[in-house]
Amino acid sequence: MRLEFIYSSIIAGILTGTSLCSLSSVAAQVMQSASYQIQSDSINVGGGLSSSSNFELESTAGELATGESSSSNYELKAGYQQMQEVFLALTGATAVSLSPTLPGVTGGTANGSTTVTVITDSPSGYQLTIKAEGSPAMQKGADTIADYTPSGDPDFTFTTGATDSHFGYSPEGVDVVQRFLDNGTDTCNTGSAETAGACWDGLTTSAVAIASNTDANHPLGATTTVTFRVGIGGSVLQPPGTYTATTTLTALPL
Question: Quick check: pTM over 0.70?
Answer without folding.
Answer: yes
